[in-house]
Amino acid sequence: MRKVGFIGIDEKYRQFFTENLPGDTFEVIFYDDLADLDPDLEVLSVFINNKVTERVLAGLPKLRLIACRSTGYDNIDALSVQKRAITVTNTPAYGSSSVAEYTFALILTLSRRLPDIFHETYASEPDRAKEQGFDLFGKTIGIIGLGNIGKGVAQIAYGFGMRILAYDTNQDEKLANWLKIEYTKDLNQLLKESDVVSLHIPYTPDNHHFIDTAKLRKMKPEALLINTARGELIDTVALVKALKDRQIKAAALDVLEDEYLLDPDDLIELAAQQDRAARSTLRHALAILALERLPNAIITNHNAYNTVEATAKINQMTLQNITGFYTGGQIFTV
Fold first, then answer.
1. Residue 322 and residue 292: Cα distance in Å, rounded?
2. Which whole-number Å values give the CA distances from 286 to 33, 49, 260, 261, 281, in the listed order?
3. What confidence tier does 119 reach under pLDDT thresholds 50, 70, 90?
4. Which residue in 55, 165, 255, 325 has a CA-CA distance of 20 to 30 Å to 137?
5. Which position among 42, 193, 232, 259 bears the catalytic label?
6. Of the residues 230, 232, 257, 284, which is catalytic?
7. Which residue of the set 69, 113, 284, 302 is catalytic?
8. What confidence score (pLDDT) does residue 264 get?
9. What pLDDT does 94 receive?
10. Is 259 a catalytic residue?
11. What is the mean pLDDT of residues 80-105?
């Protein structure tokens, strides 16, 4: 019997895996915490917020497969899994439309100042100046990364009548002709000309803090910054300063550096630690707290993927990865 462990599966989705992983072959176990894992697990399925470190892997000597329920996999210690010859799979392109639509929900929330409108709606004398937004029609959106999600954002932007600038190493000329996309090899041009800058690139150590102080200074003072990709792409401390000093107008972030610190329990645990690494992470925690208090910042908790349709695709692809690993079927390896 092969033991398969799942971290962070909602109750309503557990039945799917229990019913579809054959009981005569797999023993399916659900966990809430990585600290509780059975050392006899052969398969571990995680979401992007579950950090699979060297320490975690050391406690799983029989582990053969990590099935990520996400497109990104930077939460996995790559060197450790390589050393142990553990296969890692992911779920690519499961939510391109879901994340693209959420990206525009964030853009519209900022451009039409919905938080201010919600607040002023119940005021005795609403301040119409506070409620005044701006049209997206005729504005320029700069899309950094034109993969599946970035292409979805471009399609929606085209429908809004926006000018579309794109920065990507690969250029899809057919798409560019259809949506009138202007590819640019000059990132500075995109930053200087865009009214909205939206990030859709994967995170790697090479693009850590891709958006830093220097790049924020190149953006328009009335520009919006949107991130539904990975939190580590933005220098959080630099963003706090840029928003506070009004170097840019506003930001909407569905992802953050060390976003697990949005959980008060994790924040309290960090505060009790004394080592140098903890002090560095604490700086991010303070930046997150500052962002939460800025009137021109919106934070949501890694929710862009979260639709009925996208979750169904994630579950189906994860099931395919697990069964395919043992039967020789198609799997999505990273």
1. 39
2. 25, 19, 13, 10, 9
3. confident
4. 255
5. 259
6. 230
7. 302
8. 66
9. 85
10. yes
11. 95
Q: What is the CATH number of domain 96-299?
A: 3.40.50.720
Listed residue (305, 328, 325) closest to 92, CA to CA: 305
Q: How far apart are CA 95 and CA 313, in angstroms?
A: 8
- Give the pLDDT confidence score for residue 265 in this predicted structure: 67
Q: What pLDDT, on the 0 to 100 scale, is given for residue 333?
A: 93
Average pLDDT, the chain: 92
Give 227: exposed, middle or buried? Use CB within 10 Å, 0-12, 13-18, 19+. buried
Closest CA relative to residue 239, chosen from 252, 254, 258, 230: 252
Q: Which amino acid, 290?
A: A
User: What does the pLDDT average to over 152-163?
Assistant: 98
Residue 302 annotated as catalytic: yes
Evaluate whether 19 touches 43 at the Cβ level (below 8 Å).
no
Q: What are the backbone angles phi and psi of residue 295, rounded to the nearest 5°?
A: -70, -15
Q: What is the mean pLDDT of residues 269-282?
A: 66
Domain residue limits, the chain: 2-94+308-327, 96-299
**Rounded CA gap, 239 and 99, in Å?**
22
pLDDT for 176 equals 96
- The pLDDT assigned to 278 comes to 64
Please compute the mean of the pLDDT values over residues 104-110 and round it to a whole number: 98
- For residues 80 and 93, what is the distance between their CA atoms, to the nearest angstrom? 26
**What number of other Cβ atoms are within 10 A of residue 131's Cβ?**
16
Residue 56 has pLDDT above 90, yes or no: yes
Secondary structure of residue 285 in the 3-state scheme: helix
Which CATH code of 3.40.50.720, 3.20.20.140, 3.40.50.880, 3.40.190.10 fits the domain covering 2-94+308-327?
3.40.50.720
**Cβ(144)–Cβ(151) under 8 Å?**
no
| Common-topology check for domains 2-94+308-327 and 96-299 | yes
* Distance in angstroms (rounded) separating the CA atoms of residues 323 and 40: 18
Query: In 3-state terms, what secondary structure has residue 52?
Result: strand
Residues making up the chain, counted from first to last: 334
